[in-house]
Design a protein that fits this description.
Layout (H helix, E strand, L loop, with lengths): L5 E5 L2 H6 L1 H10 L9 H10 L4 E11 L2 E11 L5 E4 L18 E2 L8 H10 L4 E7 L4 H6 L5 E14 L5 H16 L3 E4 L3 H21 L9 H16 L3 E8 L2 E11 L2 E9 L9 H15 L4 E7 L13 E10 L2 H18 L11
Parallel strand pairs: 4-6, 11-12
Antiparallel strand pairs: 1-2, 2-3, 3-4, 3-5, 6-13, 7-12, 7-13, 8-9, 9-10, 10-11
InterPro entries: Acyl_CoA_acyltransferase, BioF2-like_GNAT_dom
Protein name: BioF2-like acetyltransferase domain-containing protein
Organism: Alteromonas gracilis
Amino acid sequence: MTALNRILVITDLDGLHSIRENWLKLEEVALFKNLFNSYDWVDTWARHYAHYIERLLIFTYWREGELCSILPLYINTSNATTAYYISSFEPSHIETCSEAQDFMSLSVDTLPPVRMFKHHLVEQGINNIKMSNLSPRSLFLSWASELPGFREVTKERVRFYIPLLTGMEKLNKKTRRYRKAATKIGMNIRKVSHMEELEVVFSALTKLNSERWIAKGQPAIFVEKTFTDFHKDIARKLLMSNKLSLYYLYKQNNIVAVNYSIVSGNSLIFYQSGNNTSFRPNISPGIILHYAQAIEAQNQGKDMYDFMSSSSASEYKSKLTDTKEDVVSFALYISPLSFFKSRLLETIRTIKRWGVSSVKPSHS
């Protein structure tokens, strides 16, 4: 391995900013990439969630001087020896739920050598890695099968999605009557196209989403300042880079529903929604906007409209598509001792959580 082939571990924002141009260049040409390992997402999250970050732990692999793969991890203030994927494992009331956790990489052949990676992991004082929301088909899982240590891969959730070439019929049929009824009473659908419009519609999203969950007696994620400020910031950046798909349904000046979706590689990902459930007649405005977003994805030449992962396989998403896949979590323990220590710490944290409310805000 030459001096030009190396792993550089980024541990703070200054280091992250120093490789910005290299990261953005890789982002343009990488065969494997998604929104959640993009520079804008990582940088924005790291700034807004700085209070929960002990230090960044972003593994960058350079071959002959060129940045060719990135695995964005960090150390949480609650556990100094465990590395987590960026934008995950935050406190549950403000978690951002990064999906498709994986490498950004130029190709399959430009991943860091596993032994070199482990050397840097140990050098950083890390005993284990924990990740969630991985596809069983992820590049990371196949690469990690060669990592020395004890590995756990566990099914956690289910991800629903619509393959746009073959899977639109169920959503089309489900929404046809509602779309006709909405047109009949003068409802309109629009996609946010400029910054002033974004401010108005994002405000409606947070209001509608919060009212819905509070009415159910459940916590509302958009009442949390850290979460909301992060999304205001990233939504502005996504709009400027044509990666924001924020649709809303309205009648005159009354916004009835908002669908917040994000372009990620060859997918359009549904992230959040806000619906006026008391609007009459009941035209299922949220489902109408799912249809609008799926059509938007088709028009952009995307492969799928992605509903993100869910803890339940029987909720409303299953009524809109028959296509789903398991989502798994991953844990690597460097040694048997690190495995048993991790289990002990997790048991202690679980006991502590018994004394506080563990109700989790909804993310869809």
